[in-house]
Q: What sequence folds into this?
């Protein structure tokens, strides 16, 4: 069993919302920033100082792989850009944490499928979801409910042709073709594995049930939200189901990772503003628009932020 894709998903999601019993860092949005786009395609925000502009594309958490969206504004803004800043949600294994990562991975593994540990009703729901995704029970051989949920929801999203890789993947490809410098950041998967291992049992169970519920509900809500995103309807794009994402902050350190993600992304944009010209950035929508989120931090640092309605 591999945890590579679920770990990437975990970094993306742990960098966002929080469990209901803890404050949700993305629950409160800066309302004046939630504005419908005037230009065709997805919404863009503009951060600037005296001689530099960074155009920021807000990205949905997931979108259909087949979604067609107007890229004309993106292509225009990539022309002459000095850099592209992509979402800081990649994972890697540091040489310093390889032993710890291996130990944590062994702690997560089991000789029997996770569903065999569940009460009958929940076991039946789990089995039904993974069967619809075309996966055998042995794929989920883990002792950890959060890990099982991560794998289950990732399998469901793949089976439903939903992806978390775009639009960043498309933007990266277009930037590379123009030889634009691409800036990304990786977070240590060894530490993330440790967080998953230490998640309390009750929180593991809650996350697993949220993962099952998301899969049972089907991809319709995600597809509608992604289409709203493609149409520049920011409020509509923010309506995607967040139950599973919210529960993930039950993992120890998740809220700290959320703050780090936002601060790192804001710092990268602030750094780009020191270079005359213009740059392009891609940031997940809720971390971008939340109170104390990326744009809120940049405004507090004195940079000028314009909304999609001011284009």
A:
């Amino acid at each position: 069993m591999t945890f590579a894709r679920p770990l990437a998903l975990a970094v993306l999601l742990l960098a966002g919302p929080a469990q209901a019993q803890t404050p949700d860092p993305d629950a409160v949005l800066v309302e004046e920033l939630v504005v419908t786009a005037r230009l065709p395609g997805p919404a863009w925000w503009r951060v600037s100082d005296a001689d530099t502009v960074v155009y920021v594309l807000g990205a949905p958490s997931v979108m259909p792989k087949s979604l067609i969206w107007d890229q004309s504004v993106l292509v225009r803004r990539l022309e002459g850009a000095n850099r592209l800043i992509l979402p800081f949600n990649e994972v890697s294994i540091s040489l310093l944490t390889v032993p710890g990562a291996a130990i944590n991975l062994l702690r997560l593994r089991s000789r029997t499928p996770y569903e065999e540990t569940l009460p009958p009703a929940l076991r039946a729901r789990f089995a039904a979801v993974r069967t619809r995704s075309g996966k055998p029970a042995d794929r989920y051989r883990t002792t950890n409910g959060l890990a099982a949920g991560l794998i289950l929801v990732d399998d469901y999203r793949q089976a439903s042709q939903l992806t978390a890789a775009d639009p960043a993947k498309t933007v990266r490809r277009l930037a590379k073709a123009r030889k634009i410098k691409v800036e990304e950041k990786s977070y240590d998967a060894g530490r993330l594995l440790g967080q998953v291992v230490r998640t309390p049992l009750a929180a593991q169970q809650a996350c697993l049930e949220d993962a099952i519920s998301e899969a049972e509900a089907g991809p319709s809500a995600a597809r509608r939200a992604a289409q709203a995103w493609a149409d520049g309807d920011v409020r509509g794009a923010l309506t995607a189901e967040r139950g599973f994402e919210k529960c993930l902050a039950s993992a120890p350190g998740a809220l700290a990772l959320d703050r780090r993600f936002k601060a790192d992304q804001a710092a990268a944009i602030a750094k780009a503003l020191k270079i005359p010209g213009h740059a392009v950035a891609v940031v997940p929508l809720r971390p971008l628009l939340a109170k104390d989120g990326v744009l809120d931090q940049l405004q507090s640092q004195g940079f000028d932020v314009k909304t999609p309605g001011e284009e």
